[in-house]
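User: Sequence recovery, please. Input:
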């Protein structure tokens, strides 16, 4: 099986798309798997840190036992997203051809309907390979609302041999886009009970340097506006009056961090809110175990892996009923 997705960990961004890594890791007993994980092209000039990281990703590497190729594709801002699928196809064509010459893969397994799914469909047509595409969230929730992208998504759904949705809500949306319901299988993301399991709260707090007496609310995710961290910070103003020793801990990193830091300063919440940055995925179990409650205030989700992880660690969950979250809690 040849996995094709931009959402996959690499040596520069080790937590990117970890949920896909976890899924295919459990397929190893049943299939020989390699990965094509395209990366946007950016020159090796540190003009903008977020994009410069792409330039630092090696063209080939081994991640968690998988051979991973990182072909480059052009992202053209002025033209927009309509070119990304075909650009991704053109950029990864040499690596896919080389992989298929080395081993006769039976299937292309693509994650993210657009642009990854469109590139995979064209590759599957060219090399006469069946293609399964998985819908993950914003690829259907958001991109299908763009007039120029919607027809491309419909084309992917029509031409794919099978479709996977990580939540029933995504299946319903894809049926609305014209995909036959019998073509779609709902397979929610799982959670590894070996990696995510309850630990003694006091021990976890001591090892993480968290106050042992305070009540702790935890939230985990990339620092983006849609994740709703600003809502939790606003809520802390009133909650602090009721529980002066309440602490909000936010684990994650992202472009919204300066906005959140300013909000914390303006509300004088420096003693009550902690932005601790990104943490390795294998360390998150300790953070969930240290918390009294986990809260996710997202405005949209596909299948919130952090909710599954928190529950597996015995942490109560409060979450907005968006996407597949209502199917979990």
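Assistant: Recovered sequence (329 residues):
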């Amino acid at each position: 099986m040849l996995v094709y997705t931009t959402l996959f960990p690499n040596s520069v961004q080790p937590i990117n798309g970890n949920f896909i890594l976890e899924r295919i890791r459990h397929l190893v007993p049943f299939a020989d798997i390699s990965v094509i994980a395209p990366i946007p092209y950016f020159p090796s000039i540190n003009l903008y840190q977020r994009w410069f990281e792409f330039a630092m990703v090696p063209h080939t590497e081994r991640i968690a036992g998988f051979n991973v190729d990182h072909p480059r594709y052009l992202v053209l801002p002025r033209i927009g997203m309509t070119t990304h699928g075909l650009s991704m196809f053109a950029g990864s064509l040499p690596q896919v051809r080389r992989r298929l010459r080395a081993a006769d893969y039976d299937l292309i397994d693509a994650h993210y309907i657009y642009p990854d799914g469109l590139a995979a469909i064209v590759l599957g047509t060219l090399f006469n390979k069946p293609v399964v595409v998985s819908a993950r969230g914003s690829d259907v929730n958001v991109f299908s609302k763009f007039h120029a992208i919607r027809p491309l998504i419909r084309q992917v759904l029509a031409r794919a041999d099978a479709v996977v949705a990580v939540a029933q809500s995504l299946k319903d949306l894809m049926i609305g886009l014209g995909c036959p319901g019998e073509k779609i299988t709902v397979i929610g993301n799982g959670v590894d009970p070996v990696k995510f399991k309850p630990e003694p709260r006091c021990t976890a707090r001591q090892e993480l340097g968290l106050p042992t007496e305070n009540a702790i609310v935890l939230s985990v995710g990339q620092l983006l506006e849609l994740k709703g961290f600003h809502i939790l910070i606003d809520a802390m103003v009133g909650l602090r009056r009721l529980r002066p020793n309440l602490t909000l801990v936010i684990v994650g990193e992202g472009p919204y961090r300066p906005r959140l830091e300013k909000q914390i300063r303006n509300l004088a919440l420096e003693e009550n809110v902690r932005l601790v940055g990104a943490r390795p995925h294998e360390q998150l179990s300790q953070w969930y175990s240290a918390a009294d409650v986990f809260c996710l205030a997202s405005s949209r989700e596909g299948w919130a892996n952090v909710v599954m992880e928190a529950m597996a660690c015995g942490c109560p969950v409060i979450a907005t009923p968006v996407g597949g979250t209502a199917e979990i809690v």
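The chain has two domains: 2-186, 201-328.
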